[in-house]
Amino acid sequence: MLIRIVRMDFDPGKVEDFLALFETVKEKITTFPGCAHLELCKDAKLDHVYYTFSKWESEGNLEAYRNSELFSDTWTKTKVLFGGKPLAYSLLPQ
């Protein structure tokens, strides 16, 4: 199992655009082979910062998703909404 956390800092005026986009792709991501869980979390203090928390059966499954057309299309539409640099972490549960 691999846990992936991505911190996304959005332009405050584009948060609603991101939330609408996420609604259109979340089911596609959760049904992607190897995705065991996906959730979107909002920062407790910063209204324009969101995190995705996902669990993948293996690093290979995550890489397959990252190399997919679904990811490419979603990321292309998401990155233009950023106000700051995104950060991504891959973690192994102990």
Task: Please explain how this structure is put together.
By secondary structure, this protein is an alpha+beta fold. It has a single domain, classed as Alpha-Beta Plaits (2-Layer Sandwich), CATH 3.30.70.100. 37% of the residues lie in helices and 31% in strands. It has helices at 15-30, 59-66, 69-79; strands at 2-9, 35-42, 49-56, 87-91. Strands 2-3-1-4 form a four-stranded antiparallel beta sheet. Strand 2 and strand 3 (49-56) form a beta hairpin. Helix 1 packs antiparallel against helix 3. The chain is globular. The mean pLDDT is 98.
Q: Topology, pairings included?
A:
Layout: E1 2-9, H1 15-30, E2 35-42, E3 49-56, H2 59-66, H3 69-79, E4 87-91
Antiparallel strand pairs: 1-3, 1-4, 2-3
Helix pairs in contact: 1-3
Q: Quickly give the structural class.
A: alpha+beta
Percentage of residues assigned to helices:
25-40%
Q: Using the coordinates above, name the CATH class.
A: Alpha Beta
Number of strands: 4
Q: Which shape, going by the Cα principal axes?
A: globular
Estimate the mean pLDDT confidence: 98
Q: Summarize the biggest pleated sheet.
A: 4 strands, antiparallel
What's the CATH architecture?
A: 2-Layer Sandwich
Number of domains: 1
Termini separation: 10 Å
Oligomer: single chain
Low-confidence stretches: none
The helix/strand order is EHEEHHE
If you consult CATH, what is the topology? Alpha-Beta Plaits
Number of helices: 3
Radius of gyration: 13 Å
Strand order of the largest sheet: 2-3-1-4
Q: What share of the residues does DSSP label as strand, in percent?
A: 25-35%
